[in-house]
Known about the structure:
4 helices, single chain, alpha+beta, 17% strand, two-stranded antiparallel sheet
Amino acid sequence: MPFVLALDQGTTSSRALVFDGGGAVTGIASAFNTQQRRTVGGRRLLGPDAVGAAVDAFGRLGAEVVVRPSPWQLGVGQETLPVDLTRAWLAGWLAAARKQIPDLAAATA
């Protein structure tokens, strides 16, 4: 089944929606974020909240924190790299989502 990935890169977090072939929002992004925010060894992982938490923590210590978009771009000769990176990124998201909600495995195979 084909999926469409929509990304929203904000200044303090990243959000993603994954749509199935029929245009319905899947539970993949939610499951991924839940998996990234789980508690491991008594510590709560921050996942997509990490940038905002770091900004808040440094701010409480009196540091001035400036968050800016990255000007990073792929160079000449790397035209296929975005496809490869996107595939690898989505594969990682799917693996994490499947760990969190095993029922997603059949829907995302």
